[in-house]
């Protein structure tokens, strides 16, 4: 339930962040998913979010299309994209507010987001937020580096992770070293299937790891404080899959 509430908060924050002309561009980019008559009746971004949810183009674990149209309509505004990315990372919305040197803010003044100044709030383990690498690796660009590798002998472990990882899967992949840029590329290629996203990221990691499925690194990543899937780590370590 908490995740659904945070997801709705994120959508409301996007609603407040978008300018009028950006919203019109956003509707235009949705013309393949939303009919013209429906678009004409959409008055706010939240109306559009609801339609996209009914089309299965938007959801708590299905944000690839949203990021794609936000990029296209907002000229790459990092403050808007960061609202989505911080939700994916589990960073509370309140911690994304800019640091204000004034001790008091008039209540009659609207909040204006200043995205470049963020207050680093420690997570529940007392650790400072991590700055993630958002640049895609060269894996996707090198023609002599196949996008898929032979992972048949690792399919038992891969299937186990595909079936059991949930929302924490991005933190798990980051711990393994998969970049946010690569994860975004995978999400764009497979926007409707979380299992396909996990599979492709694991194939990427195996390829970058010399074609090897390093069980020790998998176990360590599952036990990382950002993931905390000790149940899965124990089963993989004991080969109980």
UniProtKB/TrEMBL annotation:
Among the record's GO biological process terms, what is one? regulation of apoptotic process
SMART domains named in the record = DED
Q: Where is the DED domain?
A: 6-86
Q: Which UniProt keywords apply?
A: Apoptosis
Which superkingdom does the taxonomy of this entry point to?
Answer: Eukaryota
Pfam family name, one: Death
Ranges of residues in domain Death: 165-224
- Does the keyword ATP-binding belong to this entry? no
- CDD domains under this entry? Death, DED_FADD
Q: What is this protein called?
A: FAS-associating death domain-containing protein
Which organism is this entry from? Answer: Magallana gigas (Pacific oyster)
Source species taxonomy: Eukaryota, Metazoa, Spiralia, Lophotrochozoa, Mollusca
């Amino acid at each position: 339930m908490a995740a659904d509430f945070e997801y709705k908060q994120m959508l409301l924050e996007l609603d407040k962040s978008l300018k009028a002309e950006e919203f019109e561009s956003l509707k235009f980019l949705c013309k393949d998913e939303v009919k013209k008559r429906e678009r004409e009746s959409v008055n706010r971004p939240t109306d559009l979010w609801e339609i996209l949810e009914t089309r299965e183009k938007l959801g708590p674990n299905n944000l690839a299309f949203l990021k794609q149209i936000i990029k296209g309509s907002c000229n790459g505004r990092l403050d808007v994209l960061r609202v989505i990315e911080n939700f994916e990372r589990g960073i509370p919305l309140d911690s994304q507010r800019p640091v204000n040197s004034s001790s008091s803010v008039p209540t009659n003044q609207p909040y204006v987001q200043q995205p470049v100044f963020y207050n680093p709030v420690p997570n529940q383990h007392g650790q400072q937020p991590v700055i993630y690498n958002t640049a895609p690796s060269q894996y996707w660009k090198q023609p002599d580096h196949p996008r898929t590798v032979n992972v048949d002998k690792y399919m038992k472990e891969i299937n186990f992770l595909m079936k059991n990882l949930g929302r924490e899967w991005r933190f798990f992949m980051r711990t393994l070293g998969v970049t946010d840029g690569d994860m975004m590329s995978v999400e764009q290629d497979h926007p409707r299937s979380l299992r396909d996203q996990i599979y492709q990221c694991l194939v990427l990691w195996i390829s970058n790891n010399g074609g090897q499925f390093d069980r020790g690194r998998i176990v360590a990543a599952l036990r990382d404080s950002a993931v905390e899937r000790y149940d899965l780590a124990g089963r993989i370590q004991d080969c109980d899959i």
